[in-house]
Specification:
By secondary structure, this protein is mostly helical. A two-stranded antiparallel sheet has the order 1-2. The longest helix has 23 residues. It is elongated, with a radius of gyration of 23 Å.
Length: 324
């Protein structure tokens, strides 16, 4: 890849008006970022070699470039050189959306996702799953910048497309993001219905980790609706099996692929920085306390609060930093 990049950069210096040179360079820069991140994710060796390379490169004044930023520059140049309404311009909007999404610049990502989606009828994607990704990531970007009405629309379409593709994992994740959007906009009954559907998907997938997260989300929505008895029942399912479903040590899993950065279903609505046993139990007992207080069962609320404190004390002792 390095050699091809060098050849194309030389060609670009001689002919800077060729759309495909800039587009291909953008794609290669994107691939370099992908392989670099994949290499760094390897346990032990990858991290060690990356660390050594950074030291040597920094010493000689040749730090590794930000490949994603280079990708943005090349794709933008190609985008503005491309003819309006052309196939190239449509696919370049898709390229820019992907790179901005990886950079977590959700405002710019949304801008280019909506541009690509606007041309989807005239210039369809090569495969249906690519169209589903456009709507899924576009909806996520919209929710991150507070465009909740647009997010809901895009997420509903993403669910339809993933069902047509037949990818149940993606269906569950898209439903989960939709439920979160509905919750954030106060549409609690709709959010509850969607999370019930997510629960069914996870049950079919036998995904215990995400079943835990979804049940916690369902309980929280019941509390928001002042349906305290239903919340207590949902949380009881987890507490009774705290050594099984909750007792695992859940860690955030980040999977890098060529199209997007993906996470487990339901990660956005709970523990973004990790989902281990202690965090799960703290959230369980916090919600349980709120549900018992709402139902005027203060003795049970007190017991739940004591359990929460006990878990947090254990976290403090384990961390050794003296506070939680």
């Amino acid at each position: 890849i390095f050699e091809v990049i060098a050849d194309l950069e030389e060609l670009r210096s001689k002919d800077s008006q060729r759309v495909h040179i800039h587009q291909t360079l953008g794609w290669l820069y994107y691939q370099m970022s992908y392989w670099r991140e994949l290499f760094q994710s390897l346990e032990g060796y990858g991290n060690f070699m990356s660390y050594k390379w950074d030291i040597v490169a920094g010493f000689f004044g040749y730090p590794e470039p930000n490949w994603l930023e280079l990708g943005v520059d090349s794709f933008l140049t190609a985008y503005f050189l491309a003819e309006p309404g052309s196939v190239e311009k449509a696919y370049l909007a898709e390229n820019l959306a992907q790179v901005y999404f990886r950079l977590e610049n959700y405002e710019k990502a949304l801008e280019y996702y909506t541009r690509r989606i606007a041309s989807i009828n005239q210039i369809p994607t090569r495969e249906l799953f690519l169209e589903a990704l456009l709507y899924e990531n576009g909806g996520y970007s919209a929710s991150r910048v507070g465009e909740f009405e647009l997010a809901e629309s895009l997420q509903r379409r993403a669910v339809e497309l993933w069902k047509a593709v037949g990818d149940q994992h993606r269906v569950g994740r898209s439903l989960d993001r939709l439920a979160l959007t509905l919750k954030l906009t106060g549409k609690y009954q709709q959010a509850l219905a969607v999370w019930q559907e997510v629960w069914e998907v996870n049950r079919l997938l036998k995904d215990q980790e995400n079943i835990v997260k979804v049940i916690l989300n369902i309980a929280e929505v019941h509390i928001s609706l002042q349906q305290y008895g239903e919340a207590v029942d949902a949380l009881d399912l987890l507490e009774k099996d705290s050594a099984g479903m909750v007792g695992k040590s859940f860690q955030r899993r980040k999977t890098v692929d060529r199209f997007t950065t993906t996470y487990p279903i339901a990660y956005e609505v709970s523990e973004v920085e990790g989902f281990d046993q202690q965090r799960t139990l703290v959230r369980l007992y916090t919600l349980q306390t709120r549900a018992f207080r709402g139902a005027d069962k203060y003795e049970l609320a007190y017991e739940s609060l004591r359990k929460q404190v006990a878990v947090m004390e254990g976290v403090r002792e384990a961390s050794g930093n003296g506070y939680v």
